[in-house]
Specification:
By secondary structure, this protein is of the alpha/beta class. It has helices at residues 40-49, 53-58, 73-83, 112-122, 145-157, and strands at residues 19-24, 27-32, 61-66, 87-93, 102-105, 127-128, 139-143. The strands form 2 sheets. The chain has a 5-stranded mixed β-sheet with strand order 4-3-7-5-6. Strand 3, helix 3 (73-83) and strand 4 (87-93) form a beta-alpha-beta unit. It is globular.
Length: 158
């Protein structure tokens, strides 16, 4: 049996590793380096290992537009999606504020797995649109006030 498809990662306490050693009343313990027990770095590594092969094969490009009042939300969502293996290539903030999050599919249905995964992740249905000269990605996610108010809080706690 071949090891060609085997992926291995080491969770260590090296300076650039996701964990660190610490001492407390229990003795020597290993804790997440981020310090907040969210295990975001460990989760990111796990998602990198288990990225769905269909998602990886489609290599869809994604743009995130922050149309909320929360500064930095686009970057937060970008980091989250990248940790799940999505290819986010652009993040921007738009001046027009939107009440609802939207998923626009410019791939004309050529990337059905990415569309399906994004629809499930954002609990919405994508809509097709013809590519225009100012869109250079397969998908555009426009973050609206509904995402800011509900989903963002849940996603950040995972």
């Amino acid at each position: 049996e071949s090891d060609a498809n085997v992926i291995s990662k080491v969770f260590d306490t090296a300076a650039d590793g996701p964990l660190m050693g610490a001492s407390d009343t229990r003795g020597y313990v290993i804790v997440p380096r981020d310090g907040d027990l969210s295990y975001l770095e460990v989760k990111r590594i796990a998602h990198e290992i288990f990225t769905d092969p269909f998602l990886a094969r489609e290599k869809s490009t994604i743009e995130i537009q922050n149309a909320t009042t929360k500064n930095g939300l686009g970057n937060t969502v970008s980091k989250l999606l990248k940790s799940y293996g999505y290819n986010v290539v652009k993040v921007s903030t738009v001046t027009t504020k939107e009440p609802f999050t939207q998923l626009i599919d410019y791939s004309k249905g050529k990337n059905p797995f990415t569309a399906s995964f994004l629809e499930k992740r954002f609990s919405l249905k994508s809509r097709y649109s013809e590519a225009s000269s100012n869109v250079a990605t397969d998908f555009v996610i426009i973050l609206g006030a509904d995402y800011e108010a509900t989903v963002a809080a849940k996603e950040l706690k995972k």
